[in-house]
Design goal:
single chain, alpha+beta, Gamma-B Crystallin, domain 1, 7 helices, elongated
């Protein structure tokens, strides 16, 4: 599927700066960060083998900041004390009861490495000195071709075939949706149109996480392509307006006859040759109906026949 109009680069830049400012304001209020790796904390070490200065965390963080005095830094005694954590960690100790995922990019995006509860270990070659965010997972993620989603519960992750890179990434599902929507909807469109898009993008990905039997030429299974064959996924492309739409509709699901809807959409009612009334949504149509005052639920019901929103 394809986006009807390119996202304005100025909007993206402004949003990134806004988000960055919001994140950088928080280190002063962070509790319990004392440079000691205590029970219940996830800890980065400046050196491999859990050596050097420590930076300890009690929750997920989507961006550490990159410059002093506002960045999250290494606080413990030893090599690296005072250095910003972002892109400077070599090993970890996960003293929490949850799996913690370390990401290459900010905002829980890009390549990642998981550390089970209680695990110690070095960051791999991709993430060593290239750590930009980490997330506490509610449960250990599925492995291989498996999903933990059902028609009534969201998958925690989705397998994305990164076509140009020739690899399959297992991506946090909400991160996936937030990094698809701005590439499929115009980010300046009305909130109800963006909410409509958030529901369609989520439902399409959810459907394929449950039903895909696709495999790469090398035999690796995946759920969706990262291009217009499925939906355009670009790590790090999330912006405030579309992420807000994802957040406010995240608890909702769209089903037909009890099954998650494979929500097709296209720019207009005439742009896609496969258009079938009742099974496809018009992106521009969602904009026009939102401008006319319709809610996202009304827009979805206008385009998709027989759906239930719950």
């Amino acid at each position: 599927m394809s986006k009807p109009t390119a996202v304005l680069s100025a909007l993206l830049t402004a949003t990134v700066l806004l988000l960055s400012g919001a994140v950088l304001a928080s280190p002063a209020s962070a509790a319990g960060r004392d440079g000691t790796c205590a029970t219940g904390e996830f800890c980065y070490y400046y050196n491999s083998g859990e050596a050097g200065s420590v930076s300890d965390f009690t929750d997920s963080l989507d961006d550490y900041g990159a410059t002093q005095p506002t960045c999250y830094d290494f606080k413990g005694a030893g090599n690296g004390k005072g250095v910003c954590v972002k892109n400077n960690a070599a090993s970890v100790w996960n003293r929490t009861s949850k799996t913690v995922r370390v990401f290459f990019n900010s905002n829980f995006a890009g390549a990642h490495q998981d550390f089970a509860a209680g695990a110690k270990g070095n960051l791999n070659a991709t993430l060593k000195n290239n750590n930009a965010s980490h997330e506490f997972l509610s449960a250990a993620p599925p492995s291989g071709c498996k999903t933990d989603g059902t028609n009534s519960s969201l998958p925690t992750s989705i397998l994305v075939y990164r076509v140009s890179l020739g690899r399959v990434d297992r991506v946090d599902f909400k991160t996936y949706v937030k990094n698809v929507l701005p590439n499929e909807w115009v980010t300046s469109w009305p909130a109800e149109s963006l909410s409509t898009g958030a529901m369609a993008v989520k439902s399409f990905g959810w459907y394929w996480a449950l039903h895909s039997s696709r495999k790469t030429s090398g035999g690796k299974c995946f759920d969706v392509y990262d291009n217009t064959t499925s939906q355009v996924y670009r790590p790090g492309s999330a912006v405030a307006s579309t992420s807000a739409a994802v957040d406010r509709t995240w608890s909702k699901r769209m089903t037909r006859s009890g099954n998650i809807l494979q929500a097709h959409y296209c720019s207009t009612t005439t742009a896609c040759g496969a258009w079938v009334t009742g099974d496809w949504l018009s992106q521009y149509g969602s904009r026009d109906q939102a401008n006319a005052g319709k809610s996202y639920s009304a827009i979805l019901r206008y385009y998709y026949d027989g759906i239930v929103l719950a």
